[in-house]
Design brief:
The protein is mainly β. The chain is about 5% helix and about 35% strand. It has a single domain, classed as Neuraminidase, CATH 2.120.10. The protein contains 3 helices and 34 strands. Strands 2, 29, 30, 31, 32 and 33 form a 6-stranded antiparallel beta sheet that branches. The structure holds fe (ii) ion.
């Protein structure tokens, strides 16, 4: 067995659970910040069975930052998945390579392999920790105790559930999907429309043209958009003990446009090229008449360094930096192609992109993105880490003017994905705060920073300073206190 440790830095597993009441705050927290910021984190509790496994296979933990009246309390707990409990009992790793059951210890092959480590969402008063490999895992939003897998009262029969469902801010509906929906390597897709009370109101099953990683989706007020990618799998690949995904540069992009209230016969597939098949996260989508517009960072080649190419060649760094693209699908046209426009590129765009979530499914003006920006002050001792392994800045893009605003938390700091919090429920788009965890590689401590979302260059308004380093974050989710009430402990 090899150690998961890669030196004394933020990538070394922490294996902790913690609670900090009244976190130290530098600066002053805006009065408008009343609510909970949840984070899904990935942190291995035991050395992996295989040294070539991916960090995506790390145990899931949920962090809770509660903001109230200028104060912040912090709590973190691992998600007690079937996997966590089995390995806790054995006091060692039992689960094998990323999403490959045949490489796991025979005693656990029939258990859920989900780590629940990707996205925390709150819907219908319930907190879920999501991982696209399995069903949502319910977590108590107050105690963070694990309540178990949730299949929406038996209505979700797919074996998995996306980590990136979309919450329609206008209807309160949760729109979700499943790929490999009948198990490993199945070409089945399922779309679920779930009302604001948590009841499934529509379910659409259909087939994908390729079995590929479909990590994210988008919605408009009428449609669901599902892109396929060039990250593929097969029974042969799994039988030989490989990681679940390998990148095939010959596989083109396909996009399904699905009416939210339609049936399988209403699904339209559009077909693109192989250099459009690395779309991991979407930014947003909206309808313009009978056209569907999707915006997303898209790369011409695999940027997941952990997953190999099927031809064994190295990834080409000249092709794997994404550009922000706008794809337009004309539903009035008989063509099965889409129009592509490059909105911006030529810089180190990542696939971590967010918007003011009140504009999900409607045309947005601003987007926010994690970036690696060598023009910002970078301490040379941490330059390689900040350029290659993490990002060092948050950007705001103005899609109307092309303007860019950027935030650097410090010259030895890496950033996690940011979250936009509106100043008030009726504030204009972008009027509010960006919050998120940044990691100081010099001090080996984490901070949660608060920035004016319309003036990133002004720097942090407040820094919530943790007395230790936190688990590495995947995605986060903000819930206003009015939506998810709590009383300070
Ligand atoms: Fe993601």
């Amino acid at each position: 067995m090899s150690s998961p440790s890669r030196g004394n830095d933020f990538f070394t597993p922490m294996r902790f659970e913690a609670e900090v009441l009244d976190c130290e705050v530098e600066g002053s927290l805006p009065a408008a910040l009343q609510g909970t910021f949840f984070r899904s984190c990935a942190d291995r509790r035991f050395s992996p069975l295989y040294s070539d496994d991916t960090p995506y296979n790390s145990d899931g933990a949920v962090d809770q930052f509660r903001f109230y009246d200028g104060h912040v309390d912090y709590r973190s707990r691992y998600v007690r998945t079937e996997r966590f409990l089995a390995e806790r009992k054995a006091h060692r790793a039992l689960f094998g390579r990323y999403r490959n059951r045949s490489t796991s210890d025979p005693s656990v092959r029939d258990l859920s392999h989900s780590t629940a480590n990707t996205t925390p969402i709150v819907h219908a008063g319930m907190l879920f920790s999501l991982k696209e490999e399995g069903l949502p895992v319910r977590v108590d939003p107050d105690t963070l105790d694990t309540l178990g897998e949730w299949d929406f009262s038996g209505r979700v029969t797919a074996t998995s559930f996306t980590a990136h469902p979309k919450l329609d801010p206008h209807t309160g509906e949760l729109i979700a999907f499943s790929y490999e929906a009948k198990g490993d390597c199945s070409d089945d897709l399922a779309v679920y429309v779930i009302d604001k009370y948590g009841a499934v109101t529509n379910e659409i099953w259909f087939k994908a043209p390729v079995v590929s990683s479909m990590h994210d989706m988008a919605i408009t007020d009428r449609h669901v958009i599902l892109p396929t990618t060039g990250m593929v799998t097969s029974a042969e690949q799994l039988q030989r003990g490989a990681l679940h995904w390998a990148y095939d540069p010959e596989v083109p992009a396909h996009v399904a446009i699905v009416p939210r209230n339609g049936t399988a016969k209403d699904v339209r597939w559009f077909h693109g090229t192989a250099d459009q098949a690395m779309l991991v996260h979407t930014t947003n989508a909206w309808s313009e008449g009978n056209k569907v517009v999707l915006e997303a960072p898209v790369a011409a080649e695999n940027f997941h360094s952990y997953f190999p190419r099927v031809d064994g060649k190295p990834n080409d760094p000249a092709r794997y930096i994404p550009t922000m693209r706008r794809w337009t699908f004309d539903l009035d046209s008989d063509s099965d192609r889409w129009q592509e426009e490059i909105l911006f590129g030529g810089m180190t765009v990542t696939s971590f992109t967010r918007i003011d979530d009140r504009y999900v499914g409607r045309k947005n003006r601003y987007s926010f993105m994690m970036m690696s920006d060598p023009s910002l002050p970078v301490n040379r001792d941490f330059a390689d880490t900040l350029a290659v392994r993490v990002s060092n800045a948050w950007y705001r893009f103005d899609h109307l003017t092309g303007g860019i605003d950027k935030f650097s938390p410090g010259d030895s700091h890496g950033v996690s994905e940011m979250q936009f919090v509106p100043r008030s429920p009726t504030a204009p788009e972008g009027d509010g705060y960006l919050i998120g965890v940044v990691n100081d590689f010099r001090a080996l401590r984490s901070e949660l920073v608060v920035v004016d979302a319309m003036d990133l260059a002004a720097g942090a308004l407040a820094r919530v300073k943790l007395p230790f380093r936190l688990h590495m974050q995947v995605h986060g989710w903000w819930v206003p206190r009015a939506v998810l009430p709590f009383e300070p402990r």
